[in-house]
Predict the 3D structure of the following.
Amino acid sequence: MDVAVRTGLLAIAAALAITGSALATGLAQGRIGSAGAGTIAEKPELVGSVIVLLAIPETMVILGFAVAAMLILNIR
Amino acid sequence: MLVQMAKIQIIGTRNVLDRTVRALHHAGVVQIEEKLPTVQPLVLDAGAARQREEITLLLARLDALLTLLPKRPQPKNISALYEGEAARPANDVMVDSKNALGQLDAPAQDLVRRHDQLEADQVTLPRYAKTMRQLMPLAAELAPLKNYETVALLVEKKFSAVIEMLRQQLPALTNDQFELVARDIETDTTAAILVFPREHSAAIHSMLGRESITQVRLPDELTNVPFKEALATIQNRLATIPKELEQSHRELDALADQWRTRLAVWSAVLHDHLQALEVQGRFGATQYTFVVVGWMPRAQLPALRDALAQVSDEIVLEESRLSEHEREHAPIVLSNPRPARPFEFLVRLMALPRYGTIDPTPIMAVFLPIFFGMILGDVGYGIVVLLGAWYLMRQSKPGGLRSVSTVIIYCAVWSILFGFLYGEFFGELGEHLFHMHPYFPRGKSEWVVTLFAFSLALGVVQISLGFALGIYQAIKLRQRHELLDRVAKVIALIGIFAMVGNLAYALPPGFMTLSIALLLVGVVLLMYTLGWMGLILAPIEILGVVGNILSYLRLAAIGLSSVYLAMVANKLTERFEDALILGIIVGALFHALNIALGILSPTIQSLRLHYVEFFTKFYEGGGEGYAPFKREGIR
């Protein structure tokens, strides 16, 4: 395959990897955040659990980032 | 570590009840259990019940008075004063505080009321003065008349038609006996003054109310005074307020100097007495004896036994044997080496560990700062965070904030160490300015894979440690189900690692069969542990563990984002070649943003790795806090 096309495809793939995972994380965190705010208002002692719940979907974007980084590193 | 607790029973004759309660209160180590099912609850005698009511009332008055008096720094001998008063009989303290309240309550309240009024006047009178000054030119046109009332109105200019409407309605209401002058006083305000005989007062005020016309209201004492006089009065009053305020401040301060410490000590002592009376509601009693059941750290048993022996030889203290149910509900006391203690609140934030399980505080104290340091990893940022946390620690009292700042100090030290490793000082600024040599330039693309591998390796270490602790705990607590679950996952994980090793040609090809076999054994064992649902859940659970390890990639990813932000800050500064100062300001702002993110993000991510990835392998929450019956002391 032509090098330029290959490079372009890799760059698009990397962008897709981070876009999809970031959107998914954002969507999940938005919902957890609003529910968490309600929880803390009623039971402030649950703040630890809420922080953890809020951080859980971040794994998605981090894995997306890792994949994107791997793809970018493949561009020569 | 969790402190070993003992469940105790104290039985004594009722004639030594008061002295026993006092001894327990002073020892401050026994958490007294709620009502006992087997014996009748102890009922306070009439005298004690009356005393409890009186103390409750006295405390309400004392605490109200304390809120009125300005705060004073606590004298150095406050503990001695408290102990001195605590040693006196409750009735004597009650009499003294009652006398003091009788003497102080009314004058203090008067003083505070006067002070508040003065402060309110200082704010409101200038507003009246301003309005009146605006109305003065109009007032000058009207001669002061006896038995006539004057009303001032301020109307927004766009509603000034209202004044014309008044002019049409007033003749009928007042038999033509009125005067109304109006003038624009500001660009958007029209002022009007209306004078009419007092006999029509009610009718006119009701009309003004009906038409929603706002009158200029003056303080009561100025309502019937001519405008000029009223304005002069307000100005005189404003001139004297600062002096009067100063005087009332002085008087309040004098009162606080003389009484506050004494009142605070009495309040603390009476709170103690009230607590000692109320706790007896949880005791059990027969006609001649009382019984107390509670929890205490086992190490303190001999000391309490000695203290009770000194009270009387008619008190028996014995340790009960714990049933399985009781063991699960023992209160939790965390006891860790001094350096690890600030991390205890992070464990509490999640939940207290259940009695008999592992307290993860010391492990957290080791890993959390390393994770934080690995993510932030910048000498400059580390120093800024260290100085900030150091300042916060010096300023804060022992407790929550001091623990937080101490944890951040540990984290900042690791950031500095990793900063040297990465060769970062405010990003790559260190390399340019001081020729810092990066041993591990994580921002360079050829090092990214190494950084990922290092993060995953840390994940493998911590998750393996978690499983090891989980297996140890399951054996210790004889939890067969948990033991099988964890062993199965470890076997499957070893299988997966071996497979990856094979695929990466790190292991001889013959190992592939063995690794697949290990994975299968792990999955089947987990299926067996989970029951028929295991057919679906076991593969998911094992994938979850792999996900847990991959989650440690965040150590690399979040750190890289911080590196890139720092790079952006420095690049931006370089762009401002012609206006270097502006460039430095922009760069500094960016770095400040990065530091703020650099404290928040690594903290949350490191916490999450502990709570979600590490704790789930062994941690059992649900422990109950330990709240011993003890003197609260002076607050």
About this structure: The helical segments of chain A are 3-42, 47-55, 58-73. The first helix of chain A runs from residue 3 to 42.
